[in-house]
Amino acid sequence: QLQEQQEEIENMMNAVFKGVFVHRYRDVVPEIRAICMEELGTWMRSYAASFLTDGYLKYIGWTLHDKQREVRLQCVKALQGLYCHQDMAAHMELFTSRFKTRMVSMVLDKEPDVAVEVVKLLTLMLENMEEVLTEEDCQSVYPVVYVSSRALASAAGLFLYRRLLDPQREAGREPSHDGDNRIFFRLLLAFFIESELHEHAAYLVDSLWDCAGPRLRDWETISALLLEESPTEGLVDRQEKALVEILAASVVQAAEGQPPVGRGPGKKVTGL
């Protein structure tokens, strides 16, 4: 009797999906398309056994190309709700391989709020799906730490920190405050020098401030690194110059508590 009732409910859900959703997700009214994507994400989280399949996921994938901002935004938020759970993300390998290129390209979405949510989505993928993002994918996100929109740059800062700068990302490493911060600054210097945007230390520091502020305020470790004379432990001139710029930017940020000139909450995505 229970099985019969479950089958009946599933048949009704399928009828609603085919009779309403399949027609309305392409509705001429953007708000209706956005509602469809939002609700589809809710169904997938609530009834994963029935809805978290490639047959349903493809509708979100297709709609990532929608011309309207609010529709793309709801698609990305629906995907965030799925990728934030490792068990759900494990069911999304085929979807990820099929639509990952589109998701990564949306880091440069013309609407800053959509781009912010996309970077947050990629950060969830980084955390919950091992090795899903290639180095090339990540290289598309790293430069965003230098853009003028603070919300977008901060989201990219967290992505950069989790992927490249977190000293404890290596499994099994014993945390050590001084040692960890030394590693953090060496990783940060390598990234900063490689990015070849040396006049933009203030932008990089501001992007990392929310996720790595306590590390950036570790003046003691910075001073120790700058004073280190050992030929193996010491910094080369190029690294010292870059670290002094990062130190100066961190001091200004700590003292003023304001983003650098040219960066604000409402700025369009520029500066790549």
TrEMBL record:
SUPFAM superfamilies: ARM repeat. The keyword Nucleus applies. GO terms for cellular component: chromatin; meiotic cohesin complex; nucleus. One of its GO terms (biological process) is establishment of meiotic sister chromatid cohesion. Keywords: Nucleus. One of its GO terms (molecular function) is chromatin binding. Residues 21-106 form the SCD domain. Signal peptide: none annotated. It holds the Pfam family HEAT_SCC3-SA. InterPro entries: ARM-like, ARM-type_fold, Cohesin_Scc3/SA, HEAT_SCC3-SA, SCD. It comes from the Eukaryota. Belongs to the SCC3 family. This is Cohesin subunit SA-3. It comes from Eudyptula minor (Little blue penguin). The gene is STAG3.
